[in-house]
Amino acid sequence: MDFTFTQDQLLFQSSVRDFLTAEVTPERIRAGWDTASGRDPGLWHQLAELGLTGITVPEEFGGLGMSELDFVLLAQECGYVALPEPLVHTALVAAPLLRQIGGELAGSWLPGIAAGEAKVVVGLQQNLLVEDAHIADLLLLQREEGWYALAPGQVELRHNESVDPSRRLYAVEFAGGAQPFATGDKAAELTAATLDRGALGCAAQALGLAQRMVEMAVAYSGDRRQFGKPIGSFQAVKHLMANVAVRLEYAKAPVHRAAYSVANGEPVAARAVSHAKLMACEAANLAAKNSIQVHGAMGYTWEVDLHIFMKKAWALANAWGDTAFHKARIAADIFADGTALGAGTTFAPAVPDGELNPN
Amino acid sequence: MDLAYTPKQQAFRAEIRQWLAANAPAQPLQSFDTAEGFAQHRLWEAKLNEGRWGMVTWPEEFGGRGCDLIDWLIFEEEYYRVRAPLRVNQNGIFLLGPTLMEYGTPEQKARILPKMACGEEVWAQGWSEPNAGSDMAAIRARADLRGDKYILNGQKIWSTRAVWADWLFGMFRTDPASERHRGLTFILVPLDTPGITVRPIPQLDGLPGFAEVFFDDVEVAVENRLGEEGAGWQVAMATAGFERGLMLRSPARFQETARRLVELYRANRASADGDPAVKDAVIRAWLDAESYCLATYQTACRLGQGGKIGAESSTNKIFWSELDQNMHATAMSILGARAELLPRAPDAAGVGTWLDGWLFAQSGPIYAGTNEIQRNIIAERMLGMPR
């Protein structure tokens, strides 16, 4: 039993954090809002140079060959800076999906992802819209009857504006005649795994977003003075932030467990992911709610940077499965006959088979 | 990261499971806040100690097994799984014990820990005073050094288990000119010393789970001082850290409550679903109990690799105490009109022990430092907000 990250994983996180906080400033994010694509090819190139676009691409295709568990701490850092570029989507959704599909599609596209030259985006029916479809070189789309791989020329996009100006969402339609590359059970497997990876990415980013919002509100409460002292010295303000810290603290381990679960194909992976997403997005929503309150009227302005992070948190809370979906998955599991609950059931196999049961 | 138990950990689980199957009481003991129940629980502590299960993390020389925190979590899981008796000496084994390991002299450890481990000496806490609750630094009870003895005068209150306990550990002001957290000293007091009056205080369940303790020229040998004179605050904070932190409330307790809540909900779904908030609350109970378990394992692993418990441990106490309240409130909703019935009421079939748990859950956000004090600590020490 070792529920810690390795020194290498922690060092990687720390160096990525240094890079992202230096490069992905609120000013740079705001600049992107006014461009047609909303995307920054220079930044993507930098991320590729660091190996990040190919972090989960197998080494044989030029990537770093790392797992969802290796990436989860980096996804937190992407949340911390509210990174607009689709790094989490690429590393946690697109590349692992191609890896899972294998064959020619994987061989054709994974090297380009690792090199930062190709962008692959994934759309699930669950998601209603497709993130970053406008910059895709390849779209992998799930429909009722199966999975399709489509070139940009085969699809029609309809832009849908999000509350988060960094998010670019598209309804994607394509003409009949396209053949699904996967159907039936194979398609269902791809869909289930993709949904879990996407939801895990939301959960990890939510941790970083919550952390960032707390830090911003704490800093503001130290600067802003009323009644002759910093408002952060008032207990009513302190407790707003402490309440976020509590929920955030207990959202971390479930996210890390979910990453481990996904990376290792644990049978409880789906439940672990739903658990992680519910906890982390709830913490991020609470961070948004209490941080805007601590900022007062300033928090309600376009000028103060808080909304960059609040809006991403709000968007992610219902992306890749809304709360109803994830709660229903938890309920289906814990209310089912034969599900082992209670002390000693968190990690498998906690209970050696049969022979020891005193009851 | 490797979230599988090692064969050694599996074998440890098997060993405690077998021992509990053979030794845990088949029927629940009476409450340890009754004279008979206290005696029953003391005997149970002796039995646990015979199996060297009293405190598995302690060194072998003091009756433990030298286990790490993961083994301790496994022990707790198996213990709560069979609803083994609550630990009557929890003030001793979970709070004073670890403090003694850190601050005690070799003589103190050798004298106190083995008797603590076997339940021969049960410990009460003596921190709060009528005017020193959340503001613990306002302590006024005095200890004046005369020769090789301290003379204690003053009053303690809310001393858990003090009615039938053998010893009390507490903080006393040794420097009468001192203020706040300076000049305090941590002293261990036999409760049968002349000059001590223990006045029981009935709790919400009507039983005297805590007491007022009056000190009237009570003589205590200087060997019973823990740590240096005047260093009481520092020693007590170590205890508070253990209390808020891992030891006092392991996740197993809450996971079992969550499991029973799921069972209660499933058994009463037809009526419970009339209030849509109930199902959501049951799901949340499972989510939070499981989160608490995961976070505790993560912390235990981090500590096992040399990490330290920091101010984030204040989040722990808020989390489990509010979880416990929420779970019991949900159970009361599910039980509906039966919720108010004592288990002995003739028409109380199926209410189980939820009412007892509900009453006790009310104390969680208050004891071991109120949740408001914990929130201040989180804001100031963890988040760095201004005092």
Question: Can you offer a commentary on this structure?
Answer:
- The complex is a heterodimer of chains A (359) and B (387).
- Chain A has 359 residues and is mainly α.
- Chain A has 2 domains: 7-183, Butyryl-Coa Dehydrogenase, subunit A, domain 1 (Orthogonal Bundle); 186-334, Up-down Bundle (Butyryl-CoA Dehydrogenase, subunit A, domain 3), CATH 1.20.140.
- Chain A contains 11 helices and 8 strands.
- Chain A has a 3-stranded mixed β-sheet, covered by helices on one side. Chain A has a 3-stranded antiparallel β-sheet with strand order 2-6-5, with no helix packed on it.
- In chain A, helix 4 packs antiparallel against helix 5, helix 7 (184-223) runs antiparallel to helix 10 and helix 9 (269-295) packs across helix 11.
- The longest helix of chain A is centred in the middle third of the chain and has 40 residues, at 184-223.
- Chain A is globular.
- In chain A, 50% of the residues are buried.
- Chain B is of the alpha+beta class and 387 residues long.
- Chain B has 3 domains: 7-88, Acyl-CoA dehydrogenase/oxidase, N-terminal domain (Butyryl-Coa Dehydrogenase, subunit A, domain 1, Orthogonal Bundle), CATH 1.10.540.10; 123-231, Butyryl-CoA Dehydrogenase, subunit A, domain 2 (Beta Barrel), CATH 2.40.110; 249-382, Butyryl-CoA Dehydrogenase, subunit A, domain 3 (Up-down Bundle).
- Chain B has helices at 7-23, 35-50, 69-81, 90-103, 106-117, 232-244, 251-267, 269-272, 276-304, 313-335, 354-361, 371-382; strands spanning 123-126, 142-146, 149-160, 167-173, 184-190, 196-201, 210-221, 225-226.
- Chain B has a 4-stranded mixed β-sheet.
- In chain B, strand 6 (196-201) and strand 7 form a beta hairpin.
- The radius of gyration of chain B is 21 Å and the shape is globular.
- The mean pLDDT of chain B is 94.
- At the A-B interface, helix 7, strand 8, helix 8, helix 9 and helix 11 of A face helix 1, helix 3, helix 7, helix 9 and helix 10 of B.
